[in-house]
Structure formats: structure tokens, C-alpha cells
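Reopening this one. Same input as before:
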Amino acid sequence: MTTLDTTTISVELPEAFDLRWNRLPGVSVDGRCLSVDPTEYFFRFESHSWLLADWEQVKSELLPAQESTEQAVEQMALEFVKAHAAPTTDAARVLATAYEVYAYLFRAEHLPSLGLPQITGEHLRMLRQAATLMALNKVELDGHISNVGPCWFFPAATSVVFDLDDEMGGLLDEVYHGGWFNEYRRIESIKAHAALGGRLVHGCQSVPDQTGGVVAPYGASLSTFREELSALKADWIAQVYAHRRPKPSAAA
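Same output, byte for byte:
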């Protein structure tokens, strides 16, 4: 039986994460240094290998590529992953790559066309940070969920960290779940997630329901994934919400 490396994962990122990430077990923020203790952070941690492609190569070769009648964008992304992605056990590199992916996807230039004036650049920062940590989650080709931590459950984790009420947490989930409600941005997402070795798969069904998502490999059994998540998500979400700060008393 293989023993997993549970050494603390530490990475220095371009952006200093909000200090309130320290509210989640196993997460430590010190300036631009983000650390994750796997033994405390994950609900389940069975795999210490991720599939990554070089973000600079994704930017230069895949992001400018155009879909055609001969090649769909999903096919382009899959072929890029097959040609250029490789397994890594360097979890810090996963986080660094994920930060670049989500800094690109959740960028402020899209705000004017979003049609949701309540969503600001600060909310995009929340999305970038939570999605960066989400990249450590993992689904196997057979659909089994091998790694899962609090940031799988996107709105639950952001409500704990950023003190969001249920209404704003749900709205942020809409932005995340809907890929910004725009086909152009969906295409951007497919291309960018090739750097993380797969595609973004939401755990939600017809509407955002606090289930978040994961970057899954192309070809993963989504039926198995959905069944396993449905059976276990309530307990995992409850564990995330257990760290939510109580609202201040209205009494003087």
C-alpha cells in the first residue's frame, strides 16, 4: 500500500490571499505564501498526483486557437492535454498553475458585460482564490472522488472565509457555476483548464446548489462521480459550514 506524502504544501503566489483563509483547518496564509496541511485540510486525500500542462504554453498555443468545422474546442483541449500534460506530485506547482488559470478566467474586464452589478472586482478575487485551492481536488477516470477539501464546495467555503450571507453566496455560486453565462467565456474556460489537465465539471445539477465542482480528466465517468458526490456531499458541506462565524448579536 502506497503511503501518501502529507508534507505541508507551500507556495508563493503573485497575490496575497485574504488572511481569513486561516479560518479553514489546514490553511495558512502569510503574505503571498499559501500553505496547506493535507492531514487537516482534506476530507479525503487518496492521491498525490495531478495532471498539469505548462500555463505559458497554454497561453501561447491554445488560448489563441480558433474552433473550426473540423475541430471543436473540446477536441482541441483534449488533444493539447494528451500532447503536453504530464503527471506531477508537486502540489505547489498545481496551486501556482491554478492561480494563473483563474486570474485569467476571473478578470475584471468581463464585469461590465456580466449584467450583475452586485458582483465586483472583490468578488472576482474571492473566486480566484477559492478556485486556486479547488485545483487540489481530484476525480479519477473511473469517476471516484480521490481528493476532496472544503473548496470543492465553492459557496460554502467562501461564506466561511468572506462572511458572505446566503444571498450573496448563492449569487457568487451563479457566477462560478454559469461560467459567466456566456459562450465566449465557456470556450475560454475549456482552453484554460487544459493547464490543469481536464475540464471543469460542476457538481450542481439544474441550478447551483452549493456543490461546487472539480477539474476532471477527459473521459472520467461522470455517472459514478455524480452518484458518489450525491451520497457524500451533505456531510462534507456540513463540515465546511461548521467553521462559519456566528453573526454578531443585534442586541446593544
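So the earlier flakiness isn't reproducible anymore. For the record, The two ends are 58 Å apart (CA to CA).
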